[in-house]
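Lab meeting notes turned into a lecture example. A postdoc, R.K., suggested we walk through two folding results consecutively so the class can see how the record format repeats. The first protein's sequence and structure tokens come next.
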Amino acid sequence: MSLSPRIVAVFGATGTQGSSVVQALLADGTFVPRAITRNSSSEKALKLKTLGAEVAEADLWDVASLKQALSGVEAVFGITDYYDPKNFAQGHNSEMLLGKNLVDAAKAMDVKYFIWSSLPHCTRVSNGKYPNVYHFDNKANVDDYLRDSGVPHSILHTGWFSENVWNYNILDSVPDSDCLELSVPKYDSQSPQYFTWVERDLGQCALALLKHYEDPESDILSRTFYAVSAKLNYTQFASILQQALGKPVSFVSSPTTGMQEMDDMASINLSGSYEFQSEFGLYPHTAIPDPRLIDLGVKFHTMEEFSQEVKSRFV
């Protein structure tokens, strides 16, 4: 008699975070990932199906579709995207509403375990100095809703995505020079940053929690964990990149984020997510990497290892 598959619904499965989780689940084999997407016929969704994932359609705005997609699911990896055009058009609080919809659907379908990908609440942490970093605060508000829901859960906080180096051209050539600039807006050169190499580390963090959440001794339920690969300032990061690339790399704090929406946020009260991170730090009172995740078997990658990935793309 065969056992029923242990299915984990992964939201954002075709994006940076979700794809890392799907890949980790597929490589391990304990769970069957069910990639949740609005378009199951997309090229990325079909590729995941070819790799062995289930694919199901659902829309976070439609609770009925969420319940259908969560049928037979043991666990959920939940994430929302503030900058998705459909969500962004619905206003600053849309991401919070979507997260609440997902929690409600998970509770209705008796999901056994819920991992929520989140960030700090900038307004609270800064005592109101940075009240407009909506893509942080929305997620953090869902933290509270999830805690109150009764759904067994863990919250997984992430850092600054290392992949931003190429996804947003953070590292770029200096014209008429052999030098490179690491350009991050509104950030003090000596302030620490919390780096998450999403592709290599986020998935294994989620997998470790999934494999141990039923073990009371692991003390996983109702806890917040930190999927952060390394803590260092951008000057140190530039030095690591310089050593790997074999050419000068300097850090520059630019006056703009390169994203109009984030610049607009900053202009409202001279605040924004990078200024918040520079002044307060994402997780200043937390050991990085998270020793609890290391005890669960997570092998975090260093930024020296990440620099070799950068080298393969820039040299």
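The second example is placed directly after the first for contrast:
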Amino acid sequence: MASSATWVHSSSLPHSLLPFLCRRITLSSSFRYIRRQSATGGFSSSQNNSRAPAMAVQALAKRGFSFKGDELASPADLQFEEPLKIVEYPDPILRAKNKRIDAFDESLKKLVEEMFDVMYKTDGIGLSAPQIGINVQLMVFNPVGVRGEGEEIVLVNPSVSRYSKKIVPFDEGCLSFPGITANLQRPESVKIDARDVTGARFTVNLSGLPARVFQHEFDHLQGVLFFDRMTEEVLDSIRMDLKALEKKYEVKTGYPSPETIDSRKRRKVPAGFGRS
């Protein structure tokens, strides 16, 4: 996620947001992460809050959302070429179905390492696999957004078991939508189930910025893009920017844009994650 899906680095955010995003965030010990570095984004928040977000889920709703029963990824699905590059809207890869992972091997670990690398290089604090052209259910993030600081979180085959009824607004950005930020509302907290890079299962409660990053990246795993959740008024504020990306795609590929904002129909997205 930027400030992208990925989130953006603090250097590109308004000064009012720096204390919130740069403050070291300690996540629940239930989280498994690929490594904690001792040496040497994307998405942004409109809230000016210098306190690290609490991790308890509050006012939980009853319904959840998962990918159970989805197709399993093959070894070929996890192959990639270096260096990884961010896939930008309206590339159809961002809308494609993402397969579940059941092989927790060195190839997966290598992919995770490369995802963190491109995330930091592009000033992100979160990144999903489809954003680098690999359609599997995998995301990485570090709410601090700085290599060597904070905790590097890896979520494989994540699912949402609960989410809060309380909805909060944020200004979000996305690495797949360079230079674009806009406001949308999402639940303040979520409870998730996932596997780590070794295949171990775990459950964790998230709220505040980590919950927002997770939901943004989780949307990518469903083929949902952040503008799908915006009100028509907010969407109109970035319409010309989206059309510019569509034109950029056509010039680059020589093909018509696979989707256009002008012909967009209201998408149905899973309940509980902002407005559809």
